[in-house]
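ok so i was messing around last nite and threw this chain in just to see what happens. nothing serious, just curious
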Amino acid sequence: HGELQRGTQSRHAKAVAREEWESDDGDRPLAHIGQIQAKRFLATMVPFAITEIYTSDAVRCYESIEQIARSLSINPVFSPSLSEYAFAKDKKSWNKLIRSEERRVGK
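result:
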């Protein structure tokens, strides 16, 4: 039998409010409370024995996983296809991507 692989997913930590951000939304960073949440994220995820991290290329998403990736020596895989824009543009393809990844990890 093959080794059981698990997957987990998470939304980014609390970002600066859209109304308060005047640049490109993809560049919108974490708010102060989001930075605190991101620091706590490592303790939350350690029990899952994470070996891979996939993230949107949005700044707030990267900032959310930066500490856990560094602490676990994981190079994150950045993908614009994991963004809310990709989802809004093509929900069917996005859901297909998620299902194929679930099959890949044995869910």
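not much to say yet. The longest helix spans residues 32-45.
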